[in-house]
Structure formats: structure tokens, C-alpha cells
Amino acid sequence: xxxxxxxxxxxxxxxxxxxxxxxxxxxxxxxxxxxxxxxxxxxxxxxxxxxxxxxxxxxxxxxxxxxxxxxxxxxxxxxxxxxxxxxxxxxxxxxxxxxxxxxxxxxxxxxxxxxxxxxxxxxxxxxxxxxxxxxxxxxxxxxxxxxxxxxxxxxxxxxxxxxxxxxxxxxxxxxxxxxxxxxxxxxxxxxxxxxxxxxxxxxxxxxxxxxxxxxxxxxxxxxxxxxxxxxxxxxxxxxxxxxxxxxxxxxxxxxxxxxxxxxxxxxxxxxxxxxxxxxxxxxxxxxxxxxxxxxxxxxxxxxxxxxxxxxxxxxxxxxxxxxxxxxxxxxxxxxxxxxxxxxxxxxxxxxxxxxxxxxxxxxxxxxxxxxxxxxxxxxxxxxxxxxxxxxxxxxxxxxxxxxxxxxxxxxxxxxxxxxxxxxxxxxxxxxxxxxxxxxxxxxxxxxxxxxxxxxxxxxxxxxxxxxxxxxxxxxxxxxxxxx
Length: 483
Prior knowledge:
Blueprint: H1 3-27, H2 31-36, H3 43-55, H4 62-70, H5 75-102, H6 109-116, H7 121-152, H8 158-206, H9 210-220, H10 233-240, H11 250-258, H12 265-296, H13 307-315, H14 318-356, H15 362-384, H16 392-395, H17 398-415, H18 421-440, H19 450-472
Helix pairs in contact: 1-8, 1-14, 3-8, 3-11, 3-12, 3-14, 4-12, 5-10, 5-11, 5-12, 5-17, 6-7, 7-8, 7-14, 7-15, 8-12, 8-13, 8-14, 8-15, 9-12, 11-14, 13-14, 14-15, 17-18, 17-19, 18-19
């Protein structure tokens, strides 16, 4: 590993730990501060932490790789994500910020579900179990990605990468809690933003400019620059449907709960969507510019998803490439930390406090939160120990699972007074089961599983709530916040 890369990574790790120390001193005296930052986030931190927690390494590895292989038609995934995120900011963000306070200061998504309905404890328990199980697998996948990054990009061992990535993330998350996670995500989002501007611009320059790059790409495949290449109606729906997942991602929407006030949501939305637009365009451009550069300069690309890594290595001196590779690590770590904290928060608030220690002191609850972070991280580390562990195939569908199980429930709980507890439970279970069934029978290659999962979850939630309302009256707690 070049000395420039070592120095860059060392500075990056020290900065993350320093933020964790600052957050530990500022906001971890009570459980509200530890799991939700005392609802004190400003719009900039809220926006970029939500974006960084969302995108992960997929922004720099998966999407550029899809563009490299498929061409411009892969951009429809980005369009779907952008529209979904925008709708999430418009519909969910302001309402969730107020509603989680109105129902009794809910600190987690399952806690909100439980308090939203009379006798909602079963809903809270089931939704919390789903979060803890799937986010442990999600965390494991992030650790695997960190280990492989050290192996492929830095020439170091997979095990070293596993321990460095996990160790630093666990340290600042365990001690600094939600504020540390959000502030580090903000810094990591800034690093990702700069990287997604630099790499495609330099790559295009190296490929002879945009016009020449387009000619080179068309020489490889005349249809590579066509938006509709090999894309029928079902394919377009599947690509755009990625946006449906946003409404049910706990590690993203929990940021909406933590912003200082509803009045700051529009500012946060504008910052967040601006960040997302630039980084998505940059990510898509890396794939196309990378194809042009690699073809023009005869650079072999064994794995299309490594195109960002290859370009960072061949186009920049080692000091700058170290920064760019740190951007990938930042994307990975930002998501791991968010998932760790959401899992820990669910364990403490939805199980430990509710069933075992209702009268626990704030100090005890914070300690329980830290222990939970460590336990979840150790389980994830065990799963990730084998770099070929069959966890990535599971996690690739988790976005659809969360989106279908929680998405309709989140939206309807914020906008519809007649939603009942049984309707919410039925819809959540049906959404998760449909996604699992769709994957099991192999129909995901035909239509993305979130489409039937989300649609049937919404339908069942509505039908059961309507039937219950007609038979026994409305059993939901009415929405009282100003909408």
C-alpha cells in the first residue's frame, strides 16, 4: 500500500473516531440522545446523513458497474430512486417528525408502530424482530464489502479490512450513538460528493472528451447510449420501482424523526435531493466514462463493478487515489453504522425497556444500547468471516423486503385515520411473504419483487382496516398532528 494511501486512511479513521468522541461528550447522557440525537439535527446533517446511509457502496460500485455493462438504460434505476427519495421527503419526512412526538415520543420505527395503535405491542415486537434480523445481515454484507475493498484495492488481507472497517465503525457508533453516526455520515457524504464529481470528469478527459467518448462507446455497442436498450414495459416498471423501497427503510426514515423541527424539513429536502442528483449523475457517468477510457486505453476490466477503483488507481496519483478509495470506504461505513444503531435501538427500546426493565435509568439504557451495538456487530462479524459467505444474495433483496413490509404501513399510518392495528399487521406480513415467495420461485428476473409485494401489502392493509372499521368501528388512534 502506498504511503499516500496509508496517510489518507489514517487521517480518515482518526477523523471518524474524533467525531465519535465529540458525540460521546455531547449527546449520550440519556437514551433519547443516544438513539435519536435528542431530535437536534440541523437540515444539512439530516440531509447528507440520510443520503450517505442510503447509498452505501452501491453508489460507487454497483450502479457504475450496471452502466458499464448495460449502458444508459441502467439510468432508469437512478430515476426511480430519485423520484422515490423525493416523494419520501415530501410525504413521510414532515409527518413522521411530528407524529412520532405526538404518539408519545417514539424513539424507533417499531416504537412508533406500537404507540400509533391501541394495543399495538404485537406490531412493535414483530416489526422490531424483522429489523434486527435483516439489519444484522445487512451489516455483515457491509463488513464483507470492506474486507474485499482492502483485499482488491489496497492489496491487504481480507481479515485486516474486516477488523479495521468493523472496529472503527463499532467504536464511534458504540460511544457516540446517533449523533456520531449522523455527523460521520455527513462527512462521509461530503467525501462521496467530491469523489463522484472528480472521477467521471477526469475519466472523460482521459477518454478524449464527451463527443469522442460517445463514439468509442458506440463502437463497442451501438445501442449502449440508448435509454430504451432491451427495456420493455415490465423492465421499466422494475427499474422505477426501486423508488418504492424508500418509504420502508428504517435507517433512512429515522433521520426524519431526528431533525430539530418540521419547519427545517424543506431545507433538508433541498440539500438532500441536490446531493443525490449530483452523486447519481456522477455514478452513472463513472460507468460510461469508464467504458470509454478502458476501451480507448486498452485497460482490462475483469469485474465491471470495480471500474471506480480502477479509474481511481490509473488516473490519479496515489495521494488522491487514496482519498477516492476512502470515499468507497466512507460509503460502506456510513451504512454499517446506521444499521448497527437502528438494530441496537430496537433491541433496547422495543425489547429490553418494554419487557424487562421498564424503570431502567437513563444511564442503564445507554449502556444497554452500547452492549447491543457490540453484540450485533460481533454476530455480523461472524457471518462475514468467510468472504464467500452466502449473505450478499440475501441482502440484495432486503431493500424490497423492507420496502414492501414497512412502506405501505408507514405511509398509511401517517395519512389515513382508518388504518387499524390488524390491518397494519396483516399488510406487513403479506408484504414480506410476497417478496420472499417471489424470490423463491425465481420471478425476480422477470419483475422486481417489490412491485407485487408493495401492491399486495397496501391492498391487504386497506381491506382489513376497512372490514374492521365496518364491523367494530375505527380502532386506530386518530391523526392529530397538523398535516
